[in-house]
Amino acid sequence: MGKKKGLFQRSLDGIEVVGNKLPHPVTLFAILALIVLLLSAGLSQLGISVEHPGEEGEMVEIKNLLNAEGIQYIFSSMTDNFIGFAPLGVVLVTMLGIGIAERSGLISALLRGFVLSVPKRFITLGLVFAGIMSSVASDAGYVVLPPLGALLFAAVGRHPLAGLAAAFAGVSGGFSANLLLSGTDALLGELTIAGAAVIDPVYAEGMSIAMNYWFIIVSVFILTLIGTWVTEKIVEPRLGEYKGEYREKVENLTAIEKKGLIWSGVSVVVGLILAALLILPEGAPMRGTGDQPIIDSPFMDSLVPIIAILFFIPGLAYGMVTKAIKNDKDVANQLSDTMASMGMFIVLAFTAGQFVAYFNESNMGLVLGVYGAEFLQSINLTGIPLVLVFIIIAAFINIFIGSASAKWAMMAPVFVPIMMQLGYSPELTQMAYRIADSSTNIISPLMTYFAIIIAFAQKYDKKMGIGTLVSTMIPYSMFFLVGWTIMLIVWMLLGIELGPGAPILYE
């Protein structure tokens, strides 16, 4: 008779069972789109109407999408709903640049070089920091850093699983913090802007994907310190001394890799100088003309292609020096491979685009936003308690649905209008969501890369399973969530902008 499982293990098993029964996100959005159509038909018969919060005296009713006019809309708008899905073009353009940097080997070399150059006493700090910064390369950090962290710790006589955990915490728990703007900012930002447009299209038009930039910069240092402390004071002592036999040397950068990094660095400097010349001088083509010529400028409206170019150029330079790119055919093939890897996202964009479009067309988002705001006001749930409840809800949902974009595509049309009605900016709502989403990534068995992390860990501990990994990562999740939330509360109390032109309050 097997040993009886404890409450914690049974809870993990329950989460795994429930999560595995959820349909694929593509199917989930198709089901949600169908539910919206059915609800629009039913609720429209009830004559529900609200006053448009952005247009005084204008009443808004739920629109029936299953009458003759609605059915015509469904078929005639299907292609536009797909093409017009806010994150689609943004993500694909961004990934063109990031893909070259990743597939040429630049990202891997940068991460390896950084971690290996850090003094021994700062290894944990450097590893967590590198993990957090790896989010600029989308998911590349998951594959490169955890096994590298394990090897690095083993090489200096420390427990390799502690190194793996520290890297995983940085990569996944710190996914929404960075010193640079990344594809995550573009992906979530476009969904947030679309949600804000439901209430106030004029306000939404002035928003930027850099809406959380100041906050995520500071977050890098806060999370690095938290992750380092948790590793050295909680996780590593709990793991104890490593008694396994697995040893492997971390490979140093080769001479050609170092040369490639130098030339990619030169290309970055040249690119930044050219960008500065387009932005800073009076009359520069990418400079604005108002009181805030940098914030309200063509430059801020063009961040997506700028991010792509700033990754593409150093990736190209590195690949040419290391011979990973020999001619234009290699560039085309690497770009093609990058787009091929985005196939699932493109399919997801089709069904998610239909759901978001139907939800907005039916006016259900607007009506729900008004009623939701009135309900929260009636129970006096505003201010910091409101933000805390939202973070808890998003963190809980993240355990069952791993994709940040899939969750936000469902949540943004509902919660962004509600929070705006209560006087809080879309930028604040998005940042609260990002905190919740990132903090619980590392304890969700349904997160895309969770199984890969277990496979890496089993090199050092054959008995490593879901429960062991989750129990190792829970301290990171708890301290990240609490520390990051406290930081947001302090930010709110001080009234500091979350990013360029991104206030705490919506007026």
TrEMBL record:
Keywords: Membrane, Transmembrane, Transmembrane helix. The keyword Electron transport does not apply. Coiled coil: none annotated. InterPro entries: AbgT. It comes from the Bacteria. The keyword GTP-binding does not apply. It holds the Pfam family ABG_transport. The chain crosses the membrane at residues 26-48, 82-101, 122-145, 151-171, 178-199, 211-230, 261-280, 300-321, 342-359, 379-401, 408-426, 438-457, 469-494. This is Aminobenzoyl-glutamate transporter.
